[in-house]
Amino acid sequence: MNESGSRARYETRLARVLDHIYDHLDEPLDIDHLAEIACLSPYHWHRIYQAMYGETVATTVRRLRLHHAAGYLANGSMSIAEIAERSGYSSLQSFSRTFRAVFGVPPAQYRKRGTHSRFRPALPGDDQMTMREVVIRSVEPFTLLSVDHVGPYMQIGKAFDALFGWLARHNLLEAEMRMIGIYFDDPGVIDENALRSKAGVLLPQRVLAAVTVSAPVSMVSVRGGEYAVLRHTGPYSDMRAAYEWLYGTWLVQSGREAADAPVFEEYLNSPKDTAPGDLMTEICLPLR
Predict the structure, then answer these.
(1) Which of 50, 64, 186, 216 gives a 20 to 30 Å CA spacing to 18?
(2) CA dihedral 226, 194, 20, 77 (to 10 degrees)
(3) Which domain of life is it from (predicted)?
(4) Is the distance from CB of 146 to CB of 163 less than 8 angstroms?
C-alpha cells in the first residue's frame, strides 16, 4: 500500500473515533473501547491519534466537553453540578478548577459575567456592545469546499474534523486557507437536531481549480454583496448572545434589511491552539 493509501486508512479509522466522541460527550468514554472503534492496538492507537491530530485524545475530549459546558452555562439554566457531571467530572470542585484554568474564571462567574454578558440589555456602567462594533463590508462571491452538518451548531466541529481529514488525504492542507461555517437555520425556531450548516474552507483559486471533490466533501458558493460584520472575541459558547444582539439590536436600529441568504462565520484562529477567551470569529450577516 502506498503512503497516501496508508494514511487514508488511518484517517478513516480515527474519523470513526472522533464521530463516537462527538456523539457521546455526555457519557463515559473508555479508552480501550475507542481503540476497538479505531480497530487499532490499545497500546499504540493514542500515539497515532496524537501524531495525526496534534493533540492527545484526552485533550480532545476535555476541550470538547468544556466547550459544551460553556454553552450550557451561557445559554441555559442547568445547574453547575449537572453540567460538571455531564462533562465527565466526578466532583464539582474538579470541574470548577479545570474550567477556571481554561476559561480564566470559575463556572458561576462565567455564567454571570462571561463575554456573552456584553450582549445583554445595557445597564448603567456596563461595557455593552455599540452600533460602532459592526462594519459594513463588500464581499466578492466565493466557493468553498465543505462538509454538511445536521444537528446542534455547537457540534459543527465534527464536520470540520471530517473536512480536514479529507483535505489531508488529498494533500490540500494549505497554510493560507480560511475556515468558514455557513448556518442556514434559526435555532430559536428549528429543533437543534435538525439545524443545517456547512463546515467549509476557502482555498486559493489556483488550488481550488484543480480539486476533484468526493464524498463527504462538496463545493458550495457563497453570494457576494454587502455584509454586516461583527467581530466576536471569546468562546464559541457566547455566539448565541452575539447573534441575538446583532439581529435584535443592531439590525433593527440600522435601517438595513437582511438579504435572503444564510449567515456565515469566519474563524480567524483555532480552538486547538488558542485559549477560549482569545478565539476570534467574524459573524457575517448578508444585507439587501
Answers:
(1) 186
(2) 90
(3) Bacteria
(4) yes
Amino acid at 123: L
Contact 113, 105 (CB under 8 A): yes
What are the pLDDT digits (tens) for 111-162? 988 777 777 655 444 445 555 689 999 999 999 999 999 999 988 999 999 9
Report the C-alpha gap between 146 and 198 in whole angstroms: 6
Q: C-alpha grid cell for residue 131?
A: 452600533
Query: Residues, the chain, total?
Result: 288
Q: What angle do CA 16, 19, 20 make, to 5 degrees?
A: 90
- Alpha carbon 64 to its chain centroid, in Å, reads 10
Which of helix, strand or coil describes residue 280?
Answer: strand
d(CA 200, CA 217): 9
Residue-wise pLDDT tens digits, 68-125:
899 899 888 899 999 999 888 889 999 999 999 998 889 999 998 877 777 765 544 4
Please name which of 65, 62, 31 lies closest in space to residue 49, comparing C-alpha atoms. 31
Provide CATH 3.20.80.10 ranges for the chain: 133-286
Angle at 238 between CA 88 and CA 115, to 5 degrees: 105
Cβ proximity of 115 and 167 under 8 Å: no
Please give the helix or strand (H or E) that residue 254 lies within, else none: helix 252-254
Cβ atoms 4, 171 nearer than 8 A: yes
Amino acid at 215: A
Bridging pattern class, strands 225-233 and 134-139 = antiparallel
Torsion of CA 9, 182, 71, 127, to 10 degrees: 140
The cell numbers describing 62, all together, are: 476535555
The amino acid present at 3, given as its one-letter code, is E
CATH of domain 133-286: 3.20.80.10
What's the topology of domain 3-112? Arc Repressor Mutant, subunit A (1.10.10)
